[in-house]
Amino acid sequence: MDCTFSHPIRCDRATFWRLFLDPEYNEQRHRVGLDFPLYEVLEFEKRPDGSASRRLLLEPRLHIPAMLHKLVGNTARSEESGRFDPVQQRFFWQVKMLGLGDKVSLSGENWLEDGASAGVERHVRCSITARVLGLGGFIESFIAKGVRDNYQKAADFTNRWLAERAARSLPGEQA
Prior knowledge:
This protein is α+β, with helices and mostly antiparallel strands. It has helices at residues 13-20, 23-33, 66-72, 136-168; strands at 2-9, 38-46, 52-59, 78-85, 90-97, 104-114, 120-130. It has one domain: START domain (Alpha-D-Glucose-1,6-Bisphosphate, Chain A, domain 4, 2-Layer Sandwich), CATH 3.30.530. β5 and β6 form a beta hairpin. The N and C termini lie far apart (48 Å).
């Protein structure tokens, strides 16, 4: 199953990518914005050419339907591997669902385009494949909804984060 969606982000491209690769922001985005009980940076590297790569151990808070509970258990722990290409201005990612082996694959890319109003549109394209007899389509739809919902929450969090920091830096304002 392939899905594509987008969200407005109220900043320019350079600010978005700088923020997207910022360790403090990412921890807050996952722990606060997405309410993930587990967020751990396994590897993170920013290179002089502007490229970056990271590996994250993640566990979203999920309400798993009964028919999937037996397959995944109580958690949906995953490992995300991603890389930012500064020439293409894209972030490419893959998610490995731990405990499911090669039964489920999830990958995608994020990129920006100029928005209709101030800011940019952050686009996401993802591909989800579940190889589980009789449940594949259901699992793919369940994961696609989770990905879409989490990206919406992340966009909302990002816009709040940016607005709060902009408000703090207004001249003449006292904290």
